[in-house]
Design a protein that fits this description.
37% of the residues lie in helices and 16% in strands. The protein contains seven helices and eleven strands.
């Protein structure tokens, strides 16, 4: 079976960058591509203050939801702390986290507050997307105890999979790459995209639109991970470490 792709858009918040989010939304609607969008419930990250706060932001998120876009809760404040030496992130793409190493009660308070804010705005997130791709076992426990979320947007595999009481949508790419098979989620950050980036993304989406599916379709095919998935995950982690070490040199 040929490769299929998901579009993931991170860091939606009232102060997001309209000159990239607007054209991207128009393009996705034109092509009939329904992305997965990470919404920050209560942004306090100064790097995400790209414009004056849009007063109708939550109305816009509700429109995304009504169009069939998958809405994820993208943490709470999008503010990081260094991962402590005894921290045990489930994934470790970065050395900072909003959650890793915090006590369960603190994580529960943060997740409960973010979830409640989204519900109050008429948004019903079924998916959790951790800022910086970093969370730990207590984050999953907190999600189970204070939300109805049972889907995680992260992890390494060749299709959606079930593990630890959650269904996981893997996330492996940050730009379109031609792959022979599998499900590939492309993580985009519209707030930091240049016009050249936007043009390249648009060209890739137009050229390969038929290969893109929505989150609901990906979830229907979720299953337990196979030996191939575990082998892919191990190789992917090694590749990421090599890439990071080269970047740090």
């Amino acid at each position: 079976m040929r490769a299929r792709y998901l579009v993931r858009l991170d860091d939606a918040c009232p102060t997001m960058r309209p000159e990239t989010w607007g054209p991207l939304e128009s393009l996705l609607d034109e092509l009939g591509i329904k992305p997965l969008v990470g919404v920050v419930p209560d942004n306090r990250d100064p790097q995400l203050i790209c414009s004056p706060a849009a007063p109708a932001f939550w109305d816009r998120v509700c429109r995304w939801q009504s169009k069939g876009w998958a809405i994820a809760m993208h943490g709470q404040h999008h503010v990081y702390h260094p991962i402590p030496p005894d921290g045990r992130p489930i994934l470790r793409l970065n050395d900072e986290s909003e959650f890793v190493g915090l006590p369960l009660d603190v994580q529960k308070r943060r997740l409960s507050a973010g979830y409640a804010k989204m519900l109050a705005a008429g948004v019903h997130p079924r998916i959790f997307m951790a800022p910086s791709h970093t969370f730990d076992a207590l984050t999953l426990q907190a999600l189970r105890e204070v939300t109805d979320i049972r889907i995680i947007a992260d992890g390494y595999a060749l299709r959606a999979f079930d593990a630890a009481g959650f269904t996981w949508i893997p996330q492996q790419l940050w730009r379109y790459r031609e792959m022979p098979f599998g499900l590939w989620c492309i993580c985009l950050h519209p707030n930091t995209m240049s016009q050249a980036d936007l043009h390249k993304v648009g060209a890739d989406l137009r050229r390969h639109a038929a290969l893109f599916i929505d989150t609901a379709t990906a979830l229907k095919e979720a299953r337990r991970r196979t030996v191939l998935d575990h082998t892919f995950a191990a190789a992917f982690r090694v590749a990421l470490k090599i890439k990071k070490s080269r970047r740090d040199d």
